[in-house]
């Protein structure tokens, strides 16, 4: 299992990257996912989100990631993250962080959709 400090850094880096200045690359996203996979390793109930994270990481490592696939995966991961935040054994501060992360993922997915529509 990963350290609490790594977990806190990932929350901050992920939410900052999602709402950032647009300089993050798909490979930056893949690196963040590597960190999240370390954080959730060994935790029960994370198999579904782990599989989706691995799928998203694979997309982000492609020379030309499919933006629609990335959007869908972000929304699915956001939904799973939100569900995890409502678990019985989740501390209130962690639940809040998970919900903020889910919101950031959803907003980023919607931003991607808006950008794709503007380019058409």
Write the layout of secondary structure elements.
Blueprint (H helix, E strand, L loop, with lengths): L3 H15 L7 H15 L6 H14 L6 H19 L6 H28 L1
Describe this structure in words.
This protein has helices at residues 4-18, 26-40, 47-60, 67-85, 92-119. It has 120 residues and is mostly helical. The chain has one domain. The protein is globular and about 45 Å long. The model has no long low-confidence stretch (mean pLDDT 85).
Tags for this model:
single chain; 120 residues; mainly alpha; 5 helices; globular
The backbone outline, from C-alpha atoms, is globular
User: Which stretches of 5+ consecutive residues score pLDDT under 50?
Assistant: none
Termini separation (Å)? 44 Å
What structural class results from the helix and strand content? mainly alpha
- Indicate the proportion of strand residues: under 5%
> What characterizes the major β-sheet?
none
The beta-strand count equals 0
User: How many distinct folded domains?
Assistant: 1
Rounded radius of gyration (Å)? 14 Å
The helicity comes to: over 70%
Helical stretch count? 5
Q: Indicate the mean pLDDT.
A: 85
SSE topology string: HHHHH
What is shown here, in short?
This protein has five helices and no strands. It has 120 residues and is mainly alpha-helical.
């Amino acid at each position: 299992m990963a350290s609490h400090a790594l977990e806190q850094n990932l929350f901050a880096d992920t939410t900052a990257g999602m709402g950032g200045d647009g300089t993050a690359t798909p490979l930056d996203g893949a690196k963040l996912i590597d960190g999240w996979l370390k954080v959730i390793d060994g935790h029960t109930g994370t198999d579904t989100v782990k599989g989706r994270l691995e799928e998203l990481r694979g997309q982000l490592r492609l020379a030309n990631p499919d933006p629609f696939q990335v959007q869908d995966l972000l929304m699915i991961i956001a939904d799973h993250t939100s569900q995890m935040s409502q678990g019985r054994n989740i501390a209130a501060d962690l639940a809040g962080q998970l919900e903020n992360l889910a919101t950031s993922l959803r907003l980023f997915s919607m931003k991607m959709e808006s950008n794709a529509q503007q380019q058409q």
